[in-house]
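Re: the 383-residue chain
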Amino acid sequence: MNNAVCTNRPIGFLCGVIVAGMLSACAMEEPSKLPPNASDLILLKSAKLCDQKPAVLSRLAGVPVKREVWGTGEELRIPADRSATGANESFFFDQDDQLVGQLFIFPSAVDLKPYPVLRETLGKLKPSLEFYLNIAQTSARESLDPSTLYETGDATSTVRYLVLNGDPPMLLAASFSIDPYAKLMSPYRAEFLSRIERGDKAKGGSKPSGKGSTDREAFAALQQFSRGEAAHFGSCGVKDDARAADAYGKAIAVGFSDKAWLAEAHHKLGLALERSGKLEPAKAAIQKALTIRPNTAEYLNSLGTVYARLGDHAQAVAAFERAVTLRPNYVVARFNLAEAYEPVNVRRAIAEYETYLALVEGVEEEQSRAARAQERVQALKKH
């Protein structure tokens, strides 16, 4: 059985399209699904995402590092005059000592004129947010400075640039994070904006604008949920179901006020337990998610998968039927329904496989599963 798992890309990402010319000797390149992200301003010098804390500290030997609590993890801060980039650098580690985010704040802002590749990238990106800031670095300007937040990244990480508009544009801050922690690493978070904006009246500054995002949920819950996602999706190269289950469980223990967050935490806990072979606890977790959000097709598909592994074909069929009733074009649940019908109703299995094949015709991502469906239809028709 298959669970539908969406990639954990941040909201607002656009699929890039490469228009290839007609080349007689070369095949057309496949369009990129990632936004432009090239940069000639290299910031990840002392460490890279997913590094372990002891290795990072070893590279920073001799550099003054301020260590601060960051929820259940830790933030390492390096002043601009001692950092390799000329920025106030922050390294954020989760409770497992894994580097999940980096933040760079430039005290004097960085003129982007010498960085044509980054300027070209920013020019291709749609602004994520435009707003005004009180910037200490630009005391000669107006009291409020127009700024733009840009978002890009690659398959597993999110990169954000906070740019002061003008000619030339000036880089105020940049952040890098593995995708599950993107929400906690945005330069637009209020606590990070307060590090950027001026607030020293003795230096001619004014009070910060008070802008910036704040969390509606407990930071500890969001941090543990992010930790669970990183382990669930293998953001650092290896999936860890035990760590994912531990993190989702801790997030639930802290609590969410939003029912959607709470339901998803129970659902993801169920997925982690199911992948670990703990089927009865997995069933209980997913059923809990369904008590919070009863008509969620993804949860029903996951529950059907657990029932199928438990050998309860009747309950599996019932769960998958409900999933496709709610979402008739839910192709993964449709395939799973066909599989679940095989031991109990061959004709229905064939019908569901054929419906699935009609739905996924021409869908590249479903080629492998479609080939399996075609094989099963041929085999079942012989009996």
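The radius of gyration is 25 Å.
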